[in-house]
Design brief:
The chain contains five helices and 15 strands. It is an alpha+beta fold and 301 residues long. The chain has one domain: q2cbj1_9rhob like domain (Jelly Rolls, Sandwich). Strands 1, 2, 3, 4, 6, 11, 13 and 15 form an eight-stranded antiparallel beta sheet that branches. Strands 10-7-12 form a three-stranded antiparallel beta sheet, with no helix packed on it. The structure holds 2-oxoglutaric acid and fe (ii) ion (FE2).
């Protein structure tokens, strides 16, 4: 059996945030979502909000640069270009408390409030951040997958807020299968290095690798992205990319959010992030000491 280490992933520093960092977080500002954007997100499982985080692009690029310059100083760096392949496909996650630009984004941007509104939740709990960089020349496709089966959480009220940090033509941007978040099917997670399925012994899960060819063109949502353009998508929405070569570096900063009904669950195999010893049992909310609730909706009823 191949482990995630052989697939480019490695564990470096402890991912756990210190209590002091959580205590220092401020109450972030509030965001007024357009009802039509929420409706698109609920119906399609993805919505593009142009330019909404343009003001954060320079700071997030600086944070990502730290992450990439010294990858082993941060948790879970991963390189997903196969040996001998061109370019670089880097990702890393669970470093929001170590990289000041990421911490500032969570504390001072309206991301938490935005997440709360789109999830139709009373609260927004931070799961983690996840950054991506494909360098020019990279031909490694992001394999089609959805994020929920990678995670040790389950439920319906969730969202990823994915901020593009570079101009990205639609051809190489992450693309989505509209409506797939409602299918109730779960597919095995896949390694980004080679698209192979994780080894999981769950009879309820299927392999998406054989399905890709059946996706209807009219259901694919692919967007050209400017820096600051932001995609909000459900943890269940299938997404991936083509293998078209990257012409110019394309970076992205994503935060993953849990709404009221999201609870800890145990998967039958490896999860990503590989979070251990959380002190909770299946069905419980994720512990706030590690996954802070950054937004609470004012109670109106
Ligand atoms: O940027 C990419 O190619 C992959 C992004 C992705 O899979 C995610 O944000 O969940
Ligand atoms: Fe993903």
């Amino acid at each position: 059996m191949q482990t995630s280490k052989e697939k480019g992933n490695h564990v470096t520093v402890d991912w756990r945030p210190q209590a002091q960092v959580i205590q220092r977080l401020c109450t972030p500002p509030s965001y007024s979502a357009q009802p039509e954007d929420i409706a698109t997100f609920q119906k399609e499982g993805v919505v593009l909000i142009p330019g909404v985080f343009t003001d954060w692009v320079d700071r997030l690029r600086a944070g990502l640069q730290r992450n990439m310059d010294q990858p082993d100083d941060y948790a879970f760096p991963c390189d997903s270009v196969a040996p001998g392949g061109k370019g670089r496909f880097f990702d890393s996650y669970c470093n929001w408390h170590r990289i000041p630009e990421y911490t500032a984004f969570l504390s001072d941007s309206f991301a938490a409030s935005m997440a709360c509104g789109f999830m139709a939740s009373h609260s927004a709990q931070l799961f983690h951040e996840h950054v991506f960089c494909k360098d020019s020349g990279t031909r490694t496709a992001t394999p089609w997958h959805h994020d929920l089966p990678y995670y040790c959480v389950d439920g319906w009220q969730n969202v990823s807020i994915y901020i593009s940090l570079d101009f990205t033509p639609a051809e190489t941007a992450v693309r989505f299968l509209a409506g797939s978040h409602r299918s109730e099917k779960l597919y095995f997670p896949r390694h980004f290095l080679d698209g192979s399925d994780y080894v999981q012994d769950d009879p309820k899960m299927a392999s998406v690798t054989t399905l890709e060819d059946t996706f209807r063109e009219e259901d694919i949502r692919a967007f050209e992205l400017q820096p600051g353009d932001t995609l909000l998508f459900d943890f269940r929405t299938l997404h991936g990319t083509t293998a078209a070569p990257i012409q110019q570096q394309r970076r992205a900063f994503s935060t993953r959010w849990l709404g009221d009904d999201m609870v800890y669950c145990e998967r039958t195999g490896e999860t990503s992030p590989p979070l251990k010893d959380l002190g909770v049992t299946p069905g419980m909310r994720m512990p706030e000491s590690l996954f802070p609730i950054l937004w609470q909706q004012a109670c109106t009823d």
